[in-house]
Amino acid sequence: MTVRTTDTTITFHRPFWLSCFDRPQPAGTYRLVFDDDEVLGISFLAYQRSATMLHTPPISVASGAHQVFLIGSQELASALEADAHA
């Protein structure tokens, strides 16, 4: 099975909270990694999202503990939408 990995960044303009955190995270730009697995057994190339991983702290913070959180794509989308409308 082939896994496709996409590495990108997202920016929160205000502190935010996701269910995997024990406290709110500060505003900033974060590294976000998606893993997509190839869907086998069909006649065309297709991928299905298998993992969404958010790296903390924000990219601008050089010190402190770095952690990777497995997050839900829908929860992330909701948090980004709330940030944009706040």
The residue ranges in which pLDDT falls below 50 over 5 or more consecutive positions are none
Compute the CA-based radius of gyration.
15 Å
**Strands, count:** 4
**Can you tell me the number of structural domains?**
1
| Helix proportion | 10-25%
How would you sum up the global shape? elongated
Strand order of the largest sheet: 1-2-3-4
- The count of helical stretches stands at 1
Descriptive notes:
The chain has a 4-stranded antiparallel sheet, with helices on one face. It has 86 residues and is of the alpha+beta class. Helix content is 15%, strand content 41%.
Annotate the secondary structure layout.
Elements: E1 3-12, E2 28-38, E3 47-56, E4 67-70, H1 73-85
Antiparallel strand pairs: 1-2, 2-3, 3-4
Task: Name its key features.
86 residues, alpha+beta, 1 helix, 4 strands, 41% strand
Quick recap:
With 86 residues, this protein is α+β, with helices and mostly antiparallel strands. It has 1 helix and 4 strands.
